[in-house]
Amino acid sequence: MTAMRNAEVSRNTLETKIAVAINLDGTGISRLNSGVGFFDHMLDQIARHGMMDISVECQGDLHIDAHHTVEDVGIALGQAFSKALGDKKGIRRYAHAYVPLDEALSRVVLDISGRPGLEFNVEFTRARIGEFDVDLVSEFFQGFVNHAAITLHIDNLRGKNAHHQAETIFKAFGRALRAAVELDPRMVGIMPSTKGSL
Predict the structure, then answer these.
(1) What are the strands, taking DSSP E only, across 61-191?
(2) Nearest one of 84, 6, 78 to 43, comparing CA atoms
(3) In order of start, what are the domains of the chain with their CATH numbers?
(4) Could you tell me which of 87, 97, 150, 168 has the fewest CB atoms within 10 Å of its CB?
(5) Phi and psi of 130, rounded to 5°?
(6) Does the CA dihedral 79-52-37-59 come out positive or negative?
(7) What are phi and psi of 63, to 5 degrees?
(8) Could you give the CA distance from residue 136 to residue 101 in angstroms, rounded to a whole number?
(9) Residue range 21-26: average pLDDT?
(10) Is residue 45 within 8 Å of 174, Cβ to Cβ?
């Protein structure tokens, strides 16, 4: 029987107090309370399209702005993801996804490599989506990548509506993550690396 791939992480600093939980083999259920509505909407895309159960509770210094909240949630989720994934034996490791939303199209390619790296090629058509600063999208992914130790390439190939651009990115990320962590029946107990470790 396959072990449960889930984890919980708490992160407390002078800027944020965060508790996250993730189940890599979930059903897409999310319980999100970051205090930033649009960000919760994007995290829901990861859960729903990644078929992962994700819980986020955050109290952040939103009287300043959302930067610390978004970045620190990325860090905590990256830590929880790495913890839940365990030794990585049997996973597919590499994956990609293209997701459209009306005029927008994004591509996400990732490698659960053990080496953190982010290539973020997105030119948003405006600086804010409602009250949400679009610069924080890359901050979230940088925080996640650094602590999940994955290589992640994000490209928005086209788009005129900034909300659509962001949503296609998060949906594609969820779908690619789901595919990469999937257990390959031909790789049971095998590390997906010629080095023997990731």
Answers:
(1) 94-101, 104-111, 117-121, 128-129, 132-133, 151-158
(2) 78
(3) 6-181 (3.30.230.40)
(4) 87
(5) 65, -120
(6) negative
(7) -70, -20
(8) 21
(9) 97
(10) yes
Between strands 117-121 and 104-111, the pairing is unpaired
Q: What predicted TM-score, i.e. pTM, was given to this entire model?
A: 0.95
Q: Give start and end residues of each alpha helix (H) in 21-161.
A: 37-50, 67-85, 135-148
- State how beta strands 6-12 and 53-60 pair: unpaired
Euclidean distance between CA atoms 198 and 190, whole angstroms:
12
What tokens appear for 20 in the block? Answer: 């996250």
> Please, which residues bridge with residue 16 across strands?
60
Closest CA to 171 of 81, 37, 30, 46: 46
Contact 167, 81 (CB under 8 A): no
Structure tokens at 40: 């919760």
Query: Of 117, 137, 123, 126, which Cα lies nearest the Cα of 42?
Result: 137
The per-residue pLDDT for range 6-20, each reduced to its tens digit, is 999 999 999 999 999
Tell me if 115 sits within 8 A of 149, measured CB to CB: yes
Q: Mind listing the pLDDT tens digit for each residue in 180-190?
A: 999 988 888 87
Tens-digit pLDDT profile for residues 125-165: 999 999 999 999 999 999 999 999 999 999 999 999 999 99
